[in-house]
Known about the structure:
The protein is globular. The strands form two sheets. Strands 1-2-9-4-7-10 form a six-stranded antiparallel sheet. The chain has a four-stranded antiparallel sheet with strand order 3-8-5-6, with no helix packed on it. It has helices at 101-105, 109-112, 123-134, 139-153, 165-171, 173-180, 184-195, 199-215, 224-230, 236-247, 251-260, 268-282; strands at 9-15, 24-32, 41-45, 51-58, 62-63, 66-67, 71-74, 81-85, 89-96, 116-118. By secondary structure, it is of the alpha+beta class. It has twelve helices and ten strands. Keywords: DNA-binding, Transcription, Transcription regulation. This is AraC family transcriptional regulator.
Amino acid sequence: MLSAGAPEHSVDVLTAPAHLRPWFLCVLARRIGGAQAEHAVRARIQANSYACINVISEGDVEWAGRPLPRVFVAGPFSRSVETVAPGALLSASLVMQPWLLWPLLRVNAESVADGVVPVTLEPRVHQALDAVARTPADHAARTELWTALGQALGAPPPTAPALALDALRSHGLEAAAAACGFSSRQYRRRFQQILGLAPARWLRITRWERAVSQFASTHPHGSLADVSINSGYADQAHMTREIRELTNSTPGQLRNAMLAGKESWSLEPARVRILQDVESARN
Length: 283
């Protein structure tokens, strides 16, 4: 239970251990308590390329005026959405690759995109996520969660379907389709079934996720033009247009929010992904 002295609003980011990173990115353990629990807390979930398994241990979360299920899958999201926690809250969100939804839960990523689907989890995984939601700093709870997830993957664990993502990024849809032995139409359909987003939308969102990793590491008055080029945009105006469409905010507004530590927790998965990629490249 949340105590009177609980932090008003905190999010613990638990990064997945190296051996689970092909499938899972992190867990976001969110707590709302103290004086903040007396008021509704609004949160904006930014457009992202990931799926999340969510467990609400205490309290409620509303989306579009309706309470969300206690256990559900959400995302990926092609646009930003707003949720509301009307009071105290304990929840845990397991951020994962969307293609894993089918082998793990028999849920098609396309059916979850931009929406919510109630699910029943394997009991050990459910209990472990609930424990992390309640006591995210507990080492034993974290260890049990990663162990339970590793067991749930099975042996051998599932592998990512071949979609020639490097070819898609570098040479476009037709090249990626040819690399996979599909027509462009077949590739587009398979891509959306597996990752939940159309290829063009996925490219735009993953490009914006690359920009996120740089927002928190640049000076408040640093060059957004450099960020835009390093993230794959044609120029700063291109980045501003796309990010405004995806998030309803400008790059400057997002960077300032991240540097101030405000309302940026939904951006953590993208930042974690980049850090993991950098770490892998060094090793």
